[in-house]
Design a protein that fits this description.
The protein has about 140 residues and is an alpha+beta fold. The protein is built from seven helices and four strands, in the order E-E-H-H-E-E-H-H-H-H-H. It folds into two domains: about 5-60, no CATH class; about 65-145. The chain has a four-stranded antiparallel β-sheet.
């Protein structure tokens, strides 16, 4: 796994560890890391911390909250520093797929609330489909583990 460089805005990592780390991530992780990295030496690569965090999150396997965040990111909707998206995704991940199915109305209300704050259109039927898809993806991932 990458070695963190303290108090800088870059991540340094050993190139030979990259393929091993990729086995723990979604397909495409290796290519994304290579595209965002700079080769410092034969065995040392470097990438901006912001890119590392984005790639790590995007290619992580996770629960329904993580899956929902990944789906939303693909259509251009990202967590901001002043929203509750990350906290709510964590709640969804911790409580699991069954809880999310039972509380889909609550999750839709969370998304409706955030949509309103951002001045975005909210279509409940589309949001429900996306939440259900995130739950299916999370279940598929957990069945592979």
């Amino acid at each position: 796994m990458p070695e963190r460089t303290l108090r800088t805005s870059v991540i340094n990592f050993q190139a030979d560890r990259l393929e091993e780390a990729a086995k723990q991530r979604r397909p495409g992780y290796l290519e994304a890391v290579r595209a965002a990295s700079t080769v410092v030496s034969d065995d040392l690569w470097q990438m901006p911390l912001e890119d590392y965090q984005r790639i790590r999150e995007e290619y992580s396997y996770g629960g329904p909250g993580t899956e929902l965040k990944n789906l939303l990111r693909k259509i251009g909707i990202k967590a901001t520093p002043n929203c509750q998206c990350n906290q709510r995704a964590k709640v969804m991940d911790e409580r699991g797929c069954d809880w999310c199915e039972e509380n889909i109305e609550t999750i839709c209300e969370w998304i409706k609330e955030e949509s309103s704050k951002r001045g975005m259109l909210f279509v409940k039927s589309a949001v429900k489909l996306m939440v259900r898809h995130a739950i299916r993806r999370a279940r598929a991932v957990s069945s592979k583990e």
